[in-house]
Amino acid sequence: MLSVTVKKRRGSFALDASFELPTPGVVALFGRSGCGKSTLVNVIAGLLDADAGRVALDDTVLLDTERRIDVPPERRRIGYVFQDARLFPHLSVAANLKYGERRAPARRYVSLDGVASLLGLGSLMDRRTHELSGGERQRVAIGRALLSQPRLLLLDEPLASLDAARREEVLPYLETLRDQLAIPMVYVSHNFDEVLRLATYVVLMGSGKTMAQGGVGDMSLNAGLRSIVGADAVGATIDGRVLGMDASSGLMRVQVGHGELKLQAANITVGAKLRVQLLARDLIVATQAPQHLSVRNILAGVVTTVTSDDAESDLVAIDIGGTLIMARVTKAATRELALAAGLPVWALVKSVSLRSHSFTAPPAISIASRDA
Amino acid sequence: MWLSSSEGEALSLSLSVAARSVVLSLPLAILLAWVLTRRRFLGHSLLDAFVHLPLVLPPVVVGYLLLLLFGTRGPIGSWLERVLGVELIFTRNGAALATAVMSFPLMVRAMRISLENVDRGLEEAARTLGAGAIDRFATITLPLMLPGILAGAITAFSAALGEFGAVITFVSNIPGETRTLPLALYTALQTPGGDTAAARLACISLALGLGGLLLSEWFARRVRLLLGR
Q: Which of A83, A155, B170, B196 has minimal CB crowding within 10 Å?
């Protein structure tokens, strides 16, 4: 368990944040630029002082202003991957990687070879840092942080300075990290796609405050999200389970709630966890069981709430068996179909508009607790 | 060899004095460059001005102040002689001290410029990787300010070869002990028929100065290339 409470004033900006991450896991600090995410991460690392606060990882207290505990950053054993990588320019890639390892405690959980193969660094070892591409630099920075054998890994927008192609090059490595090492991570981002792919837990931040926090599914339906990602990106994110391949269509069958979705996905094993995003704008709502349609996915459910989204449209939340999804419909449709809580409905979505990310649950044993 | 023995002596003495002066001032200059760049404290401007004072004072005044402080009856000079047995007046070590004081601002200046260019984010990164203050300074800050240290040392060495006023005031003009190149040149000019000797000595000074500046530039370029900047 990582628990963080921080208060800090900086001129007119006030940070007042608090969250708890069940470990192991990846918590995404998500919010617009300038909302205090980086400040919060710097306080956790110890690089910035807090006016008041407490940072604790399992039983280890790293900061407690009331009890006057403030472990200096060099002894916190928190790995930090900066947005600009911050590789040491006078050292080779290998020497950069070994910098933290040499100063780490005797008990190690990752080796240089292990990190090199995990992050694909083998061929880069003898290079000088200025010869690396942006994506390579970030991979080396991640490896360097890991080799310092941290109890917690902080990643402050590690992909923000990369173009889309480089980002795609690094993201799979971060997914591997999450699935293979049980190290707790705090991932700062203002890109919701990254959050959907990586996070197990989300903290929504706005103007210095933690507005809401919870699992990715809950947070994807949070009203506060709309102000950050925009109306078009609102929608449910569901962790479904792969049932198998549908022989006739070649689509993957995924169980969500009581229903089933068919979508395009490759190389997924049966039983694996698949995170599916159903955007509210892509969903169609019917009040009778639909027939004779090309749509592959029809989910039966019950309306739980209808809330006004803007002048023309409403957001309809539908329970499909313990799982909520959300559809955007016009106010005219709400009136004509008499959509209201308790009404049985069918939600329709085209397979081609579904997006999914493979997701393996992290190993049950936390490295941090094993090490402590 | 087309140099007379006394001229050769002046050249080797100059090199010896300049080398001593650089070795003497290097650690202190690094410390002061770091303090002046990285620390803010009461009296910061005063210390800064004090370090730069030799640039604007007449060298004779510096020599005179050194006499007051480091002379046999001066507070520091008498202590040095009594406790360590080090004599500065009329010795090459005294000449080295005078040149060190005079070239000190040049050295500190070069180091400060390169220290200001060291990204503090790199030191923060080293910190999160477990490096304490001294460790960080030795493994990150110092190597990254190396171009400035080298440039400062070479500039100070070249300037030390040519220091005249402070040296002659503090340790006089003794052949074989304190008569460095500029003092030998001055003496040659005062001697009837010494014109050609003076010209030769001037040429040597010119070559040494130019060589020093070129070497410093070459070093700086090499290091920049190595760091990929």
A: B196
